[in-house]
Structure formats: C-alpha cells, structure tokens
Amino acid sequence: MISCQTLVQFLERWAPKRLALDWDNPGLAIGDLSKNVSKILLTLTVTEETVEYAVKNGFEMIISHHPLFFKPLKALRKDTPIGKIVYKAVSNDIVIYSAHTNMDIADGGINDILAKILELKNVNVLKQTYEERLKKLVVFVPKGYEDTVRNAISMAGAGHIGNYSHCTFMTNGIGIFKPLDGTKPFIGEQGKLEKADEIRIETIVPENLLKKVVNAMFKVHPYEEVAFDIYTLENQGKSFGIGRIGYTYEPVSLKDFCETVKQKLGTPYIRVVGDLYKNISKVAVCGGAGSDLINTAAFLGADVLITGDVKYHEALDAKAAGICLIDAGHFPTENLLMPVLKEYLDHEIQQLKKQVEISIYNDEDPFVII
Fold first, then answer.
1. Which is it for the CA torsion 140, 142, 143, 148, positive or negative?
2. Strand 134-142 vs strand 61-64: parallel, antiparallel, or unpaired?
3. Which domains does the chain carry?
4. Which of 38, 139, 206, 265 is 20 to 30 Å apart from 172, CA to CA?
C-alpha cells in the first residue's frame, strides 16, 4: 500500500499545481490524503460510471485529468449528476485527485506526448504561461566542509543553469564571530572573538525549490548557527507554457498529414479547415480545447494547428488567419496521457518497493459519428 499524499507528491513533482492556468481547479477534490491505498484507477474524466466501476472493483483512489469541480457549487444534491458522483465517492471512501492544465503545461505532459506521437522535431512551447522565479543563495562554510555543503544543495536542486548542474562559485575569506553564553560553537570558545577560514559558496535556486535546498544545507552544515543570505534575481528562469510547436521531418500535404493524425491518435474521423493540398511542415498542437491559440500559432508561422472542440466561428478565424486547422477531438488528443501516466506512477512506486495496482478505466469518446 501507499499513501495518497505520496502519490500526490509524485504527480506534483511532474506537474506542479503552480503551472495550472488561473481558471483551473486541479488537485484534491474528495478524500483524505493520509489514506493508504492499494488500487488506483486512472481516468480522463470522473463520471458516475467511473465511480461505480471503482466501487465494484475495489479501487480506493481515482486520478483524473479533468477536475471534478470547475466552478463553486451552490448546492450538492444527490439527484444531480455531480451530486451522485460525490455521494457515491464519499460513502465508499474513494479519494479523487486531478492534474489538468498543469499536466498540459508540464514537461513531458499532454502536449509533449502529443508532439512525440506525431513525431515532431525541434519542439518548443507554443504560448508561455509561467516563468520560474530564481533566487541567489549564499552560504558561508568553514574550510574543509565546502564540498559537503555544495554537493548537498546541488543534489537538492540548486545550481542548475541550462544543461549544467552543480553550478556554484566559491571564494575564500575570514569569518569573524564571538560565541555567546549558551552556545556550542563548532569553532572557537564562548566569549572569545574568533577568526575562521571560511568559504563563501553562492549558487542559483528556483524559488519553488528554495525551502528544500535550505533544509538540505542545514542538515550538513557543521555550524549550529548557519550564516547565509538569499537574494531575489532578475534573471529569466525556465519558461513553461500551453501547447507545443515543431516541425515534421519532411513537408507533407495537409491531406496526407490528416491520415497520419487519424492513425497516430486512433480516431476514425477528424474535422479539417484549409487547402488539403497545401504542404505542411510547421505544426502547432494543443490537446483538448486549444482554439484560443489559433492566432498565436499563425503568428509563429505554423502551417496547421491540431486541437479539439473547435467552434464554427473559430474555424472561420483560422481560415482568415491563413492557418490550417485539424480538429481531432477533445478525447483523442488527451486520452493518450493515460498509459504514460500509468508508466510514470508504476516506476515511482516500484522505487519504493510498494505493491500497488494501477489500472486505466476504459473511457470512451462520448461523440458517435453516424
């Protein structure tokens, strides 16, 4: 068994909630994170059928992509669709958690999966939505302990610049201090001014990792009172965003590319806007509903945007902007997350040597074409 809190830590390590768009509501919807579970059900959307299946098959936690609650509820009645789900889940002590736009935006999340499945190259974020804030950490260490402290803070996440890790700068100096009554100095004696050979270590830290890095520093630093400083930086941190844009390996007609999209996403139908004989090479993607990115994709020179839930006037907007549009459906462009999510959780749980069963619910696209 494993605690729901540990599972949430796994999920938020991959897709932190801070990445979610303002209107979104990811995270815990129902239940107790301290609960231990042995069976987990993955689903795109929590429906009454999903919960019923979980109850019948002994699943104690449901992890979904779409949040159960998007807007505040004014009432919770048992005779409404959402009320039935909530009552059924609560009465059977089922925990429900979701990772939504944070999973769309995260590295390796839905949009990266979509770009990978379509075999795009030179992939970048389509629209930036979040930039990591950076801090400068400076700590003073007695000579001989600099490697221990530097390694500890680096392993906790400090010192990453591009594709380089353990990036630090060190200078020699003299630390001056007087231990007062009640202290247990590592160097020197109470009541006597001490001069010690010290090393100043400075490095860069993402703001979200600062607490973890400082705690790692405290654990290995020999002084009972650690001298350290934290500065706010104007440096640009790592960027995250919604959608992806990349290139096909060679130009292909829109018509042929549509066949590829259907085959790769396992969908028998798509809707298309644009000249079917136009050559396609630069491709933008956004799983789910991303038609609000039409102008962004067009501005960045995309030949086509692949998304779902496209409305009539949005299709006209794409045509006017000179960009082709493939509506591959909400379900086919997002359900591809499920096997990747299962693989990720299986791996993380195996590292802890826990026995947990993870299954994927057999979601189906609600639309039927006749």
1. negative
2. unpaired
3. 2-103+335-360 (3.40.1390.30), 110-129+241-328 (3.40.1390.30), 133-232 (3.30.70.120)
4. 206
- Whether 246 and 115 have beta carbons less than 8 Å apart is answered as yes
Given a contact cutoff of 8 angstroms between Cβ atoms, the answer to whether 77 and 83 are in contact is yes
The DSSP 8-state label assigned to residue 219 in this structure reads H
Q: pLDDT tens digit string along 54-77?
A: 999 999 999 999 999 988 888 999
In terms of DSSP bridges, do strands 39-43 and 357-360 run parallel, antiparallel, or are they unpaired? Answer: parallel
Helix H or strand E segment including 370: none
Residues 6+ apart with CB under 8 A from 266: 332
d(CA 285, CA 261): 11
Retrieve residue 122's tokens. Answer: 């030179």
Tens digits of residue pLDDT in 299-335: 999 999 999 999 999 999 999 999 999 999 999 999 9
Query: Which tokens belong to 127?
Result: 């629209």
DSSP notation for 66-97:
S-S-SS--S---TTSHHHHHHHHHHHTT-EEE
CB 12 within 8 A of CB 68: no
Q: Which amino acid is at 345?
A: L
Round to whole Å and give the CA distance between 127 and 244: 8
Structure tokens at 119: 């075999």
CA–CA dist 218, 214 (Å, integer): 6
Does this model's pTM top 0.85? Answer: yes
